[in-house]
Amino acid sequence: MSQHHPSINMLAEYCAGTLGMAEALSISAHLHYCHSCRCQVENLNRLNGTLLSDENFSQAFQEPSAAKAHTAVNHGEQSIDSLLQSTLNRIDALDNHSSSETTLSGVPIQQASIANKIRKDLPPVIAKLIVKPRFLRWKKLSPAMEAAKLSAGQNECEVSLIKIKAGGRVLEHDHRGNEYTVVLRGAFSDQDGIYSAGDFIHRKPNEIHAPCATADADCLCLTVVDAPLKFTGLIGCLINPFMKLQPS
Amino acid sequence: MLASNQQQQKRLKIVKDDDHSTEQSNKKPESGEDRWTPLLVSVADKNRAAFEQLFNHFAPLIRGYSRSKPSPTEMTGFADELVQEVMIKIWQKAHSFNPEKASASTWIFTLVRNCRVDMLRRNNRHNNQTLETDDIWPIESEDTPITHLQQSRDQERLFKAAETLPPEQMSVISKVFVEGKTHTETASELGLPLGTVKSRVRLALKKLQVMVTHRINEVDL
User: Are residues B38 and B123 in the same domain?
Assistant: First the structure.
């Protein structure tokens, strides 16, 4: 049971579909471990569902002008009848060629569950991202820490896996942007607490910390960073030029 | 409201309460009534009449949903395309809908949200398709089985609680959920500090009893 969770605000943006892909990925990874956040997400989805399906309810929340925009018919849009007709036509075409289901995007792929059998403990979404571990390019950032970038299909954030050796310490560093970390295996600690599998940690710009893996096991984390880190110590000054944000 | 004769002939059976779907707009909804879940269950059996009722109710709402959100202006017909994609998905996936785990409106909302994210991603050259939208925003909920009765009570409670929200919380909830703005966009549109928007969202969700217990005392981080 994780002890550290994303804020309700971040979960609200996740459920509304307005959170960026990379941040949403980190939420999704946390949800794999966290029953209470899954319940929270269900509650929020239920609220969204009610707002969508009941115009009386959603209009109660709207400014009069927005409510008008909500119901007005725009030029260039079809009537509901003709929209229904063309949808039914498309359905007929699809049903006639029922093997052509793959023409629709967003059909979830079995790959994730296959990968998940190999790496059972990891969230399926992460297992799917590292479905071919040999493609991961691990880079040593310090004696205790390695990082491998993940390609998460977006260009706003850097998404990486971070490995910290058992008992290893990461250089003290400063965040220019937001950093979201989800512990996938093992545990680490910093001045504020101990984080173990499933915990979600949000570091804001200018927060300085020096994480340290616990002594019993290596620690594997997912990190999402929207601006490069800055190491604050003397050695850090030498490393900083190499820590450019590289979206993938 | 009805489609062509050809489509009418395809109706397998007439669904009960046929006249309910489109005549509700000016009536206060009977609290807690869920007409859509039984219809969606019928769609799983490829019942066209049920599908048309769902369509007539949800198509204008999905359009409104799409229109109220910031979407790329060059994509003309975005709202209509979204309606069609969602409704086709409903037709194809209705068999995987489990009424013991979610209400139709919640399930349909998640389809709408994911279809919209999908369509926006398709326009993005960085989209490498490693991950499907459904991988990051799963459609299935697995946790708490709910009964119809519980669902209805939830709905009823939500309606009652909504009436007690102060206007400043209403307007924030409207932007964040109905209009799908980020907290940052909401802050700049309402001319408020981001922290104020965050705390109003929290207060409103608490009032609406949407927050799970351990979060009730959550403060701004």
Answer: yes
